[in-house]
Specification:
The chain is of the alpha+beta class and 78 residues long. The protein has one domain. It is built from three helices and three strands; from the N terminus they run H-E-E-E-H-H. The chain has helices at residues 2-12, 42-51, 66-77; strands at 15-21, 24-30, 36-41. Strands 1-2-3 form a three-stranded antiparallel beta sheet. Strand 1 and strand 2 form a beta hairpin. Helix 1 packs across helix 2 (42-51). It is globular and about 30 Å long. The mean pLDDT is 83.
Length: 78
């Protein structure tokens, strides 16, 4: 379910691409209350969606390979 929420947030602009680090995409999360979380890995965002705890921790699994991330970006842009 969290992956569906992630994709929905990506499509509606709650999450926006913010570059790359070591081959993995980084994202910015724009919260409704005006707060912003920059340079988050996909796994960190999935953790937030599941737990509502915002934590920078690169030990969380990335969830997708860089190729799969590119494919998700392709669907967003087409």
């Amino acid at each position: 379910m969290s992956k569906i929420v992630f994709l929905w947030w990506l499509l509606n602009g709650t999450i926006t691409p913010a570059g790359e680090h070591e081959g993995h995409k980084l994202y910015t999360v724009w919260f409704a209350d005006g707060k912003v979380a920059d340079y988050m890995y996909r796994g960190e965002i999935l953790h937030y969606i599941q737990t509502k705890e915002l934590e920078y921790n690169e030990d969380y699994e990335f969830g997708l390979t860089p190729d799969q991330e590119d494919e998700m970006t392709f669907y967003k842009n087409n």
